[in-house]
Each structure stands twice: as structure tokens, then as C-alpha cells.
From TrEMBL, chains A, B:
It holds the Pfam family Oxidored_molyb. The lineage of its organism: Bacteria, Thermotogati, Deinococcota, Deinococci, Deinococcales. Gene3D superfamilies: 2.60.40.650, Oxidoreductase, molybdopterin-binding domain. It comes from the Bacteria. Residues 44-219 form the Oxidoreductase molybdopterin-binding domain. This is Sulfite oxidase. Its cofactor is Mo-molybdopterin. The keyword Transcription regulation does not apply. Keywords: Metal-binding, Molybdenum, Oxidoreductase. Residues 242-337 form the Moybdenum cofactor oxidoreductase dimerisation domain. InterPro entries: Ig_E-set, MoCF_OxRdtse_dimer, Mopterin_OxRdtase_euk, OxRdtase_Mopterin-bd_dom, OxRdtase_Mopterin-bd_sf. GO terms for biological process: sulfur compound metabolic process. GO terms for molecular function: heme binding; molybdenum ion binding; molybdopterin cofactor binding; sulfite oxidase activity. It comes from Deinococcus radiophilus.
Length: 367, 367
């Protein structure tokens, strides 16, 4: 099977071309699942041309049995299917109080799909991880040079590591998305899926695993996809991003939407987190002065967003700011403001959606 | 003793103001020692105002006896004086083939001074380093926010770590420079001196040591003062800069100097390295086509530059490119070209000094 054509739904928002970075229109949220064509796309380099017939995944490093696995080898192993909400760590960047470099995601750097594949634990078990091993590096076939904010010093592959202490039974090496072969823009023919982690861990075009005995210090976990973490009194240290933080987001009304005075309106949205599940959600229609509880419309599931709604009848014309905030089963709350140590990532303070309530329609109904 | 006034020699080249970054005019090189006023200055934040009377150095972290040492306490310990050549890791940056961000050092981000102080080993011995300790972080009193190339996420202190495997008997906590109290711009009242390492390790205004059990990941050893190091087949990893690499540099002629046809001219310069000592030096006056051995005029000393000269009588008018290159006692050679993995640091390929040989003067001598 040679590389299929990309399937892209109309309505995706172009944030960058070549490499393509495409955003899901979040206001179209209507169910748990996003179609593969509508799933947001985050690319660092051009899509590599790969052929599933000749494709191999190498497993090397501190393992007893280095492996070369074909796609057939992987498909012959026990398969799992998992529904996973994936969010780009830079989602909502356009709303940062200080303009930050990077892809200017608005609300739709987040999507949900069903992924089918073999567990990373099973593959590493076949290879036999040796004592002293600390991390596994996942490397994609995509490559190029990074220049901003720091030069990568030449061409590099996209690569991210996972600590071996993570539950690797949960991590998939996926060859299907929503029941069909992966589209090229989503990593055909093989992609890592790391439940509960930001999307940077979901390495696309995955063709190499290397087990190492140190914390990996590559570009995409030191310069990119890293933040400052304070430990004691010393200046903060650079640490790789990992699990998603709790966030509730409003799908409708969309930013700048005009809604009608006196007419019932259903406010909708989703909430998600990397650890635990969203437990309560609250919505404010007055810029954060008062809050009302939202109603969940889907069950709590690990690593999957949970949809919510609130019925609202606008009673006052003019501009409104809507916000949403959640609390997780782990007691996690969203911060009131963005922490500068997170840089242009992990943007989880409630985003104010500015809309207008128009009295015109209501007036027409009451002539 | 309150903070003295800065002493600055005329002729320093201003590379940046507020914080001050000042370059030594390298063409003035005339002996091993640079005067404190002429020593290059590298600052990241404004000079903190410190008073030697009330100053304390804290020693904390994984130590048996946390300490608060006054300057008097340190001066009561056995003192050492060492002659040290210090070079900014970004020296020669203005000559990079691709324009790089940062202070645009030409040739004079390098100087030599006599530093007097107590060994870091002695101080740590008093504190009692505990088992499992890996590094010691040296923190300065200077602080501010970094924004380029990456935001530091708020105000930070300047801080760098040293591995405890380094010979810490050799590392000085210096309170005197060339026999007098440190000038404010060189770290009054206390500065670390790390022989053989680039200047970023010579933490100024040093008032805190913290022993830790991990590799330190602060701003100045991940974003700044770090490079890409390849290990095996994975994309390169970010590692902190450490020891100086071998370099030979031409002091005279200076760039764009005009020298006279047929008149004897003494080409001079220096060579230095972090490990071993410079052993041979060669000079080319024809852009690298042919090389002649230079003559050392000072002895080989660890961590001190070694001066050299070459007598040359220009035999052809017109533009010339002069280069110098050295070999160290460890067999280290300078690379022909800058390694992109080094980024805007460790620039040690031979720099071509462009000059002009003028026939005018020689013609006047032979009327």
C-alpha cells in the first residue's frame, strides 16, 4: 500500500503552509469524535513520503534484541483501540497577553480520534530493555532544519522521549485512525499516541525507537516544547512538557458571534485534562463576575474531552464576555492568569470569548 | 569597604550599553597580563550594588553544614593566586558566516588576569558535600529578565553549575584581581574563576552556592551557553558549554591595517586552549595557501594564553589575508570551518585578517 492522499475537511483554518499547520474550527464541535479530515494538523517539517510495504520500525539502543519490524509485524501483534483527545501544547497561543512566536492557534488546536495500534510496552518487551535504561526516544521520518528561536545546528529529525516509568501499556504505536489507515498528514503509516500528554509526544511517521540511559536533550524537548520549572531557590530549570493540564473551552458562541436578546441559546463546549477526568464545569456570561454550573453531555473518560452545555437566555443587549472553567477529579483547577514560566505553552487560564447580544431580533419578535 | 568605582581603560570597544559589554582592543596585546581596566567585560544584567562589609556567600543544598561566609571568613582561608586567560564563548561572533544574535565580539572577548581567592574545594569541604551530590550551582547577585532568544519566564539570577567531578581545587572564589579588590564590573566583591573554561563559568557577584543531585537545567546552560552534541544516531542534544577549545589569534596586523612593502613587520598574536597548552603555531600570509611556523615568546602555562610572533617582510603590494592556527599538547587542532552545532559559540576556525600592503612607503625609500 503506497502512501494515500491526504483527506482534509473543508473549514480547516490554515495557520501555516509548508509545513502545513491546520486548525480545527472549534465552533463546529458536535460530538466526541473529530473526523480524520477535520483533526487539527501540527507539522514541523514536510510530510515524508513513506510506503507501508517497505516501511520498518527500528528498535535500538539499550535493548537485548535490536529489532526491525515491518508494519505487518506490528499488525500481527495484539491490537488496541483507544479514543484520545490530543491538544497542541500551544493551543490558545493567539490569546496570550504578550504576543509569542510560534503557530498562532486560536481554540482549535485540539481534536479527538480513535486510534488503533500495538502498545509500546509490547514492542519494548520483544526488544528486551536492559538494566539502567531510563527513557525511550521516539523518532519520526520527517526532517529539516529549525532556525527559530534557536538554530538546530543543521537538519534534524523530529524526536521526543518518554520516561520508561510511564505506563507504556497505554502508549500506542498506531496504524489506524478512526478505523482506516492513517492519513499522510497524521503520520502514515505509524504514529505514537500518548494518552493524556500534549500532542508533541504523538510522534508522526514513527520509524525509530531508541532506548537510552539518560534524559534525552534533543531540540523538541529543550528549546521547543519545554518550560521553566522552579525547584527550590535556584533560577528555574528547563523541563520537557508532558501531561496536558486541565482546560474548559467554549465552542459556541464563537468569538464575535452575535446572539439574540431574549432568545434561548445553548452555550456548548468541552473540558479535558491529562490526569483524572473533568468533574465540574462552570460558565460565566459576565466576564467572570458570576458563574453557573454547566451540564455534562458525555461521560467522564480518561484522556478524552468531556462535552458540556448551558442553556442561556440573554437578558441584556450589548457586548458580553463568556468564560468557562473546570475542576478535575484530581482537584486540579485552571489558573486565573498565564504563568510566564510556561512560555508560549500550556495556556489554560480561562479565555474570554467576546460576543454581542443584539436587541434587533428580539425587537422584531415584539413589534 | 563599600563598592569601589569601576576602573575602565580608554580604548575599550563598546559592544552593548546597559548592561555593559566591553571588548578589549586585541591589537594592543603586548604581554601576558591585561590590566583590570582593559579586561573585557561581559554582563547580562546591571551591576548589583554590593557592600563587602555586609556581603555573605551562602552554601546550601546537599551539604552537611549549610554556611554563611563573610568576605572576612573567605579571606581567612588559605589563598591562591592564579594567572588565567578568560575568553567569552561568543568571541569572534562578528566573523560567523551566518549573522548570529548576541553580542558581536570581534577579536577582543579575551583577556588575562591574576586572580586571588580561596579554592571552591576548600569551601565545599567546610560545608561537607553529601553522598549523591552531582553538581554545584554558582549564583550571582545580578538579576533581570531574558527575552531573547527565549523568554526566561520572569526575573532570574545569573547562575551556572559545575560538575563535582571537576578538579575544584583549581576553581577559585576570587576577591582580588591583579592584586587589588575586584572592580565592580568584574564581580565585586567575589567572583568564580574556572581555569580553562569559557568565561560564562566565571560567575560574578557570586553570593550563593547550592549543591544539587541532578544536572542543572537553568537558562544559562540550556538556552544560552549551550550547544548541540551528537550521541549516536539520534538528533543532537543540548549540552552546556564548558572547556575552551584551542584557538590562535592574530593581534597585529589589526584588521584593515596598512603595512609597507619591503619593510620588516612583526606579526604578533596569542594562542590558548582549555586542556593542555598550545604547542605549535603557524601563520599564513596568503589566505591559507602556505604556512610558516610562529615563534613562542612566552612559556607554555596551563590556562594562560601563549604569545607568539613572526617576522615578515611584505614582498607584494595589494590585499592580503593573514591566518593563524595552532596545535595543542593534547593534539587538538582548530577546525577549518565553524561547526553549525556550536551555534554562535566556540568559534575557533582560523579567522582571516584582511590587510593591505602598500607600495607607497617602499617607493619613497628607493627614489
Amino acid at each position: 500500500m503506497t502512501q494515500p492522499d491526504p483527506v482534509l475537511a473543508p473549514g480547516l483554518i490554515t495557520r501555516q503552509v509548508g509545513p502545513d499547520n491546520l486548525e480545527t474550527p472549534f465552533s463546529a464541535l458536535s460530538g466526541e469524535l473529530t473526523s480524520p479530515g477535520a483533526h487539527y494538523v501540527r507539522s514541523h517539517f514536510p510530510v515524508p513520503v513513506l510506503d507501508a510495504e517497505t516501511f520498518t520500525l527500528s528498535v535500538a539502543g539499550r535493548v537485548a534484541h535490536p529489532l526491525q519490524l515491518s508494519l505487518g509485524d506490528l499488525q500481527a501483534m495484539p491490537a488496541q483501540t483507544r479514543r484520545i483527545t490530543m491538544e497542541c501544547a500551544g493551543n490558545n497561543r493567539v490569546y496570550l497577553p504578550q504576543k509569542a512566536r510560534g503557530v498562532q492557534w486560536e481554540l482549535g488546536g485540539v481534536s479527538t480520534a480513535d486510534w488503533t495500534g500495538v502498545s509500546l510496552a509490547a514492542v519494548l518487551e520483544r526488544a528486551g530493555v536492559q538494566p539502567g535504561a531510563l527513557e525511550v526516544v521516539l523518532q519520526g521520518a520527517d526532517r529539516g532544519e529549525m532556525t527559530d528561536p534557536l538554530p538546530s545546528g543543521g537538519e534534524i529529525h523530529y524526536a521526543r522521549s518518554l520516561p520508561l516509568t510511564l505506563d507504556l501499556e497505554d502508549v500506542l504505536l498506531a496504524y489506524e485512525m478512526n478505523g482506516a489507515a492513517l492519513p499522510p498528514q497524521h503520520g502514515y503509516p505509524l504514529r505514537a499516541i500518548v494518552p493524556g500528554w500534549y500532542g508533541m509526544a504523538a510522534v508522526k511517521w514513527l520509524n525509530r525507537l531508541e532506548v537510552i540511559d539518560r534524559p534525552y536533550g534533543g531540540y523538541f524537548q529543550t528549546v521547543d516544547y519545554a518550560r521553566w520549572e522552579g525547584r527550590g531557590d535556584l533560577p528555574p530549570e528547563r523541563v520537557p512538557l508532558s501531561a496536558m493540564h486541565l482546560k474548559a473551552q467554549i465552542a459556541r458562541p464563537a468569538p464575535r458571534e452575535v446572539v439574540s436578546l431574549g432568545r434561548p441559546y445553548r452555550v456548548t463546549g468541552a473540558a479535558w485534562c491529562g490526569q483524572g477526568t473533568p468533574q465540574t464545569v462552570e460558565v460565566s456570561i459576565d466576564g467572570g463576575q458570576t458563574w453557573q454550573p454547566g451540564r455534562w453531555t458525555t461521560p467522564a473518560q480518561t484522556a478524552v474531552w468531556r462535552l458540556w452545555e448551558l442553556d442561556w437566555t440573554p437578558e441584556q443587549a450589548g457586548p458580553h464576555e463568556l468564560l468557562a472553567r473546570a475542576v478535575s477529579s484530581e482537584g486540579e483547577m485552571q489558573p486565573a492568569h498565564h504563568d510566564p514560566g510556561r512560555g508560549s505553552y500550556e495556556i489554560t487560564h480561562p479565555i474570554a470569548i467576546s460576543i454581542v447580544v443584539s436587541g434587533a431580533d428580539a425587537a422584531q419578535e415584539n413589534p
